[in-house]
């Protein structure tokens, strides 16, 4: 579906394009100024004291290390200031405001409730505070965006069943599904098999971080043992694809299965570069995977740490691979089709928002009115 010699896109065109975001961490998208203010309120010590601008630089530099483990260390300071209901609500509200301003029309935002109870909140109170923020943000945006929660369990902890039960309890109140996250090496998804089996019995949706810092075994376990609906990142599926010198492409059995089953890949290009999952944007597997028509989606992962947005991720890919509006629409439709949202609601967003929005852009009309 790639355009033939598409006209280069401007950043403004990309910003105005309707976007769907499936992989974004709430604690990875705070505004630096908000962190400074919340830290002052709760007494959390920040790594630098030069204000919001310097703090923003610190996050970007610390995350740009090529190590997933060091990348994850930056969350000590975001999670550290998100330990009260008011802080969680503020962060959630500002998240929606920032996404709406970036042209996002649907988003699933993930976070680990178990990491926000140090101030005495219960798990239910954490989810309720985030939901309040999302509702306030959507209302302030004139309901131009739909935002739902993904509840994450940390793969190195032992609370996955508890979080899975929490996700099911809240699924009619703003929670779209479940996820596990954290360092992959040494913590395979099968450690949480009881939680995934419970979710399947409850007809609930879940995604699994797999194939980012670890290889094909992580992806295989996530799909074939745990039954993941989507793969968080899934970059290393490229290891099961062989490109011969003459350009012939051969898919291994796992890669072929992922493509045949249309299992969505939640790709986060800039983040993948920072964590070493991809060597450069030009070498990012997303180019070949799109060519082979895998169910690829574009995501931000952690907007603060990567200093990014959906507009920036799309613009980078457009510049790198020569994508045009039709390509960006293809990615967006992939994401909307893969969302943990009832089928009729997905169709409604596709038919009334996404397709008309791209058609208006192609015709030189402002889709935002």
Automatic annotation (TrEMBL):
Binding locations of substrate: 25, 27, 182
Q: What is its EC number?
A: 3.5.4.4
* Site feature location: Important for catalytic activity: 233
- Name the needed cofactors: Zn(2+)
Recite the UniProt cofactor note for this protein. Binds 1 zinc ion per subunit.
An example of a GO molecular function for this protein is: zinc ion binding
Name the enzyme group at the top EC level: hydrolase
Q: Which residues form the active site?
A: 212
Query: Which chemical reaction does it catalyze?
Result: adenosine + H2O + H(+) = inosine + NH4(+); 2'-deoxyadenosine + H2O + H(+) = 2'-deoxyinosine + NH4(+)
Q: Give the keywords, sorted.
A: Hydrolase, Metal-binding, Nucleotide metabolism, Zinc
The Adenosine deaminase domain extends over 18-355
Q: Which SUPFAM superfamilies match?
A: Metallo-dependent hydrolases
Q: Determine if Metal-binding is one of this entry's keywords.
A: yes
Known Pfam families for this protein?
A_deaminase (PF00962)
The entry's Zn(2+)-binding residues are 23, 25, 209, 301
Q: Does the keyword Zinc apply?
A: yes
GO terms for cellular component: cytosol
Biological processes per GO annotation: adenosine catabolic process; hypoxanthine salvage; inosine biosynthetic process; nucleotide metabolic process; purine ribonucleoside monophosphate biosynthetic process
Function, as annotated, reads: Catalyzes the hydrolytic deamination of adenosine and 2-deoxyadenosine.
Which family does this protein fall into? Belongs to the metallo-dependent hydrolases superfamily. Adenosine and AMP deaminases family. Adenosine deaminase subfamily.
Q: Which PANTHER family match?
A: ADENOSINE DEAMINASE
What's the protein here called?
Adenosine deaminase
Q: Please give the organism.
A: Nocardioides marmotae
Its gene is: add
């Amino acid at each position: 579906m790639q355009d033939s010699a598409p006209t280069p896109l401007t950043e403004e065109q990309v910003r105005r394009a309707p976007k769907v975001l499936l992989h974004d961490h709430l604690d990875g998208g705070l505004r630096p100024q908000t962190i400074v203010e919340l830290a002052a309120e709760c007494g959390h010590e920040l790594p630098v004291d030069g204000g919001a601008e310097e703090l923003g630089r610190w996050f970007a530099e610390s995350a740009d290390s090529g190590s997933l483990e060091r990348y994850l260390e930056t969350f000590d300071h975001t999670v550290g200031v998100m330990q009260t209901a008011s802080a969680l609500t503020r962060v959630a509200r500002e998240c929606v405001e920032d996404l709406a301003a970036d042209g996002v029309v649907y988003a699933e935002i993930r976070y680990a409730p178990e990491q926000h109870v140090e101030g005495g909140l219960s798990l239910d109170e954490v989810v309720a505070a985030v939901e309040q923020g999302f509702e306030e943000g959507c209302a302030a945006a004139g309901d131009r965006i739909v935002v739902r929660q993904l509840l994450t369990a940390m793969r190195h902890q032992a609370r996955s069943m508890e979080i899975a039960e929490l996700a099911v309890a809240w699924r009619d109140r703003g929670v779209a599904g479940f996820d596990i996250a954290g360092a992959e090496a040494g913590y395979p998804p099968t450690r949480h098999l009881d939680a995934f089996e419970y979710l399947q019995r409850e007809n609930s949706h879940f995604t699994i971080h797999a194939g980012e810092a670890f290889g094909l075994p992580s992806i295989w376990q996530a799909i074939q043992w745990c039954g993941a609906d989507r793969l968080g990142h899934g970059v290393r599926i490229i290891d099961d694809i062989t490109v011969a010198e003459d350009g012939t492409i051969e898919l291994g059995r796992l890669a072929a299965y992922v493509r045949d089953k249309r299992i969505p890949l939640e790709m986060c290009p800039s983040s993948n570069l920072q964590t070493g999952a991809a060597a450069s944007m030009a070498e990012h597997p997303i180019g070949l995977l799109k060519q082979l028509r895998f169910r690829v989606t574009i995501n931000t992962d952690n907007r603060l740490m990567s200093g990014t947005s959906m507009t920036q991720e799309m613009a980078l890919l457009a510049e790198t691979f020569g994508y045009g509006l039709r390509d960006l629409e293809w990615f967006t439709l992939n994401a909307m089709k893969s969302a943990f949202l009832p089928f009729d609601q997905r169709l409604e967003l596709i038919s009334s928002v996404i397709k008309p929005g791209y058609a208006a852009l192609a015709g030189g009309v402002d889709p935002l009115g």
